[in-house]
Amino acid sequence: VSILSLSKQMGHTTIPVESLVKVVPFISAFQVNFTNDNTVFCFNGFYNPGTKGDCLVAPKAEDGQMAIYGRSDGIQMVVNIFVPTITNSMNCSVLLNLGSTVSVAADAPGVYTNVLNFDTLRPVEGIAFSDVSGCRYLGLPYKVGSVVSSDPKTCQSLTCSTADVLTHSACGPLDRCGRNGICSFDTICTVTGPAVIDIQGHKNSVEDRCAYSLLSIPSVPNFLVLANFQERRRKDVSFLDSVTLQVAGSGVQIHLIQGGRVLLNNSSMVLSSSVQLVNGVELSKDNTGVTAKVSLSNFTTSVFFDGYTAQIRVQGPSGSSLQGLCGNSSRPLSGLRLSEHSSTSCETQYSDTSDSTINCTMVTERCNLLKKAPFSSCNIDPEPYIKACSDTLCRYPAVDGLPCQFLEAYTRACSLMSNTTLEGWRTVAECSSPDAFCQDQTCIDNEFCGETSGGETRCFCRSIFASPYREISALGTPTVCSQNSASLTLIGCLLAEKGFDYSALHLRDPTCTGQVDEKTHMVTFSFNSNSCGTQVMTNSTEIIYKNTIMAQNSSSDIITRQDQVHIDFSCIQTQPDLKTVAFRIRDSSVVQVITSGPWTYTLTMKAYTDASRTQAVDPSTEVQLNQKIWVELATDGLDANVVSLVTESCWATNQASPDGGLRYDLILNSCPNVADQTVTMQGNGQGTSNYFSFNMFQFSGSSGEIYLHCKLQLCVKQESSCIPVCSGARGRRSIRSRYEAAFISMAWTT
């Protein structure tokens, strides 16, 4: 312990403490000032009423004592009891005794005394204590809890903490300083190609074709942004294909699809640049893409999708956190995969042969443009974008706008997050206008929109879907055959791949064109044996129906150009086996007595096996399948000079009733049925008898019973011509006077 006596006559003095260094090594000098009003003890220079300083300001005193102590457990205990705000361990203490006033300054690491007026001390059991510890900044002391400095423009402040430490505070890495000087959560996530660049700036890649959770907010239940990934030209590289917003509370699912298409719960929507509010979601569309914006529970989420890149901006309270690939893309992907939105085979990995046309060094140099002007003026780290660019273009050809896609994504992120417009970057990178790629181009699930070598956009087949067809050089599914008809379905994107315009294709008959299914982009051509120029060929065992899909003015059998397409397809049916079936007539002939008007006559139906009608068929005669039979219809009792017998129709059934069961027409409108070339008719309407012939047949899938029925009319010769005129498919005749029709039937059995 060192004690020094002080007196007012000293004025002001500096007390060297070389002799005290061993006891209190932190003290280099201690200044004492005697003013007209105060006695001041300072630790950092003489007292200046203007700047004050690190001093103890006491009432005026005539004399006093100062004692400097080393570490004292007793004083430590007193301080801990009466000044509980001081929790540090002391190194030393200074005792100042000015008459009836005593001051103790205790030092601990990081603790500095402050200006103290002794009159403010409160008495506690005869002793007054006060915590005057604080922080020193730029030579000035600050009390605990006081703000040393603050900049509302940057939201940065310097505060003397309760631990007597200067604490610097600013907006977090995912926050932004608002105009009111308050930090708020404001961040962006970019998904482009197979890459996900999360809000931390970490890059990850999706290698399969599944759906993943991109974004969910712990404090906002039932809200989810998910992404679907699909392959394109290669089976082993996946790309962002669509984005879906789920707002479960309102039952809304909004699908953002390539081509600027938007589905609301699977129903197509028509959008424009004007905002359309749908169940709390603001939707709009311009030439660059589609934007969906939703505000829930103090959070605002905006999703932009141009068909190839999605950028999600989230704004909310400071210190917020996000989940999903956008929250932390470094998480294992299996935990974020959404099986309910994915196909069962989405995790299957494929491999493709390396593309020898890819120059990885060259594409990496292009990706590194993001390090140069004008991109370098953006304060967003370009490295994850460069990595996403080079990783993709070293495996996948630089087509479909990919060379500019990653640069476009970085530029848009800069515009959104730092209000930086990278003027002239399109010129430097040789990228065209900001119009969305494939805008308003509609492709189905098995297709994606890409760019042809000529710079035009169209729907291409996805690699996995098209692979089995390409392996066998097929353009569609196998021919579907059904009896005497056939159909062939071609795949629209495979036709386009070969340069074929389906609207110009037709069968041998140019009027027979393909039917396009707008939902599947499939083109179907159909024909039967007697239409669309179908060729029918037979041999001993087969019947072949053949047709050709060709283009207008096609003249070549070599598929080389659109106007030279020839796609032959056919159906081969097995020739029906010839059966030996014997028919027997139940009766030698059928005779009916008929009264019609003034005439009463006898009508006889009789069958023969020869054209001269001399070999009558009787119950013992066996008639073979396909054997020609002649049937004569003759009358007795009519005057041939007055009336004629006209056979109007004859038909066969598999039941006794003329109107029951299966029916096959032999005579129609007094003429042979043109559909059966074996039927002939002689003498019809020329006299009181006539006959017809046909080849014996059997009803398919039926029993051997065949019933032959005929309907006949009497025609008065003097009034009109009674002979039917048979030409083409229908007969015609003019009979002015007819009498009640006669019906007659004959039964056959195997």
Beta strand count: 56
Helix proportion: under 10%
Low-confidence stretches: 10-27, 108-125, 554-563, 576-581, 729-737
How is the biggest beta sheet arranged?
9 strands, antiparallel
Strand residue content: 35-45%
Number of helices in the DSSP assignment? 7
Question: Alpha-carbon distance between the termini?
Answer: 142 Å
Output the radius of gyration.
52 Å
What is the 3D form?
Answer: rod-shaped
Average of pLDDT: 82
Return the structural class.
Answer: mainly beta
Describe this structure in words.
The structure is a single chain. The protein is mainly β and 750 residues long. Helix content is 9%, strand content 42%. It contains seven helices and 56 strands. Strands 18, 19, 20, 21, 28, 29, 30, 31 and 32 form a nine-stranded antiparallel β-sheet that branches. Helix 2 packs antiparallel against helix 3 and helix 3 runs antiparallel to helix 4. The relative contact order is 0.05.
